[in-house]
Amino acid sequence: MDSKGLSLKGSLPLLLLLVSNLLLCKSVASLPVCPSGAANCQVSLRDLFDRAVILSHYIHNLSSEMFNEFDKRYAQGKGFFTKTINSCHTSSLPTPDDKEQAQQTKVQPGVKENEVYSVWSGLPSLQMADEDTRLFAFYNLLHCLRRDSNKIDNYLKLLKCRLIYNNNC
Ligand SMILES: *[C@@H]1O[C@H](CO)[C@@H](O)[C@H](O)[C@H]1NC(C)=O
């Protein structure tokens, strides 16, 4: 039996579970929000941002590692990368293209902009019988996770710089 496609089907969800557990154990546990037993503790906005930035950096790092690993194992010579252009379901969300645009974006705490949601409908493609179609679906998902986690990481750092350091960083 060809075990490549089969084992992939079973191991990716496991990998994702492992990653989320790693996140919980490694970063969150080593950064207690409050002293243990504290009934009523307050965390400064700066501390919250510090934690969020560490986590988002870590999530982006893991996403990149997963993408690289998948690419190495399952995508060699398949030309998947050229098919990923504008292929993320999150591409339709309006986000700044670069640092300059992001810096000009207005931040208005408490004011909700017109909310735009983007629904992911890729589950059936992860379950396709055709191996290459299925592999590309996983490849694309990991590509998008890496791309989006990078954006989140960058915007969070920018926001921290703006709100905590008044743009002096
Ligand atoms: C992720 O972080 C580790 C440890 O800092 C580093 O060695 C590795 O190169 C990073 N991976 C990527 C893809 O940036």
From TrEMBL:
Sites where the protein binds Zn(2+): 57, 153
Pfam families tied to this protein: Hormone_1 (PF00103)
Record localization: Secreted
SUPFAM superfamilies the UniProt entry points to: 4-helical cytokines
One GO CC term on file: extracellular space
CDD domains on file: prolactin_like (cd10288)
Gene3D superfamilies per the UniProt record, alphabetical: 1.20.1250.10
Single GO BP term: female pregnancy
Alphabetical UniProt keywords: Disulfide bond, Hormone, Metal-binding, Secreted, Signal, Zinc
Signal peptide: 1-30
Cross-referenced PANTHER family: PROLACTIN, SOMATOTROPIN,PROLACTIN
Family label: Belongs to the somatotropin/prolactin family.
Entry protein name: Prolactin
